[in-house]
Amino acid sequence: MKRYIQPYDRVEMGFKVIPWFKVDVEKIRAWFDFLETEYSSWKFIMGENEHVWLEPVVDMTGKTGHIMPDDVSYYTLCWNGDQEGPLPFERGCAKPEYRDEDLDLLYPRKLFVGYGRELVDSLPVRSKRWLVTIHTPGTHLITHQDAPDKIRVHIPIYTNDESNWIIDGEQFHMEPGYAYLVNTSLPHSVKNAGTTNRIHLYGKVWVEDIQKLIAEKRIDLDTQIHGL
User: Fold this and answer.
1) Contact status, residue 183 vs residue 100, Cβ threshold 8 Å
2) Which H or E run contains 170?
3) Model confidence pTM above 0.85
């Protein structure tokens, strides 16, 4: 298996997917258009950047790693340093010269401004490693887990009805208009079986911070989404 696919301990959060707060769809799409217009040269396109990896990170059979067509791309929004241009989204798989030192801070890059940054700055918790991911049709992230100290916030920008998650055996669909907390310590996969791109803004938040908000009743578990 690829090095990014490894087992971790599960964290039971009381939810798999939960809408956290509302997002202005027109504003988040305008913000993405800004990235595409002003920073397209900073986009990390999979098929153009194979040289950054210690070993191939894609397996188009889906047996040992994720299925990611060459046109899958990312905007890496956070980096400890002032490098410009495309930077790898998966630091642990990159060659040493394409990594930064992770000190658990936000480290926003020059392109991380505007509405997307405002949403992140308004969070009542710590966050890091924000990305925009563009999953083109046929992309399939096979079942994997994330480390149990952090979970993900996902903000859909564009999606389609055939772009879904499987989380611990249940299928989920996330529509634009909300930021969603996703318990990515659970086994999960993502597949875009549609004909259009699935585009998300997402980052990591600390499990202990989210657990505190739940204990303080600032996150309502009754609003969680249930599987399709």
Assistant:
1) no
2) strand 170-172
3) yes
Domain residue extents for the chain: 17-216
Instruction: Please classify residue 50 by burial: count the beta carbons closer than 10 Å to its beta carbon, then call 0-12 exposed, 13-18 middle and 19+ buried.
Output: exposed
Q: Dump pLDDT digits (tens) for 44-92.
A: 999 999 999 998 899 999 999 999 999 999 999 999 999 999 999 998 8
Report the distance separating Cα 75 and Cα 89, nearest Å.
8
Q: How many CB atoms are closer than 10 A to CB 217? A: 8
- 116: closest CA among 46, 33, 196? 33
Angle formed at CA 73 by CA 106 and CA 10, multiple of 5 degrees: 55
What would you measure as the largest C-alpha separation in the chain, in angstroms? 47
Q: What is the CATH number of domain 17-216?
A: 2.60.120.10
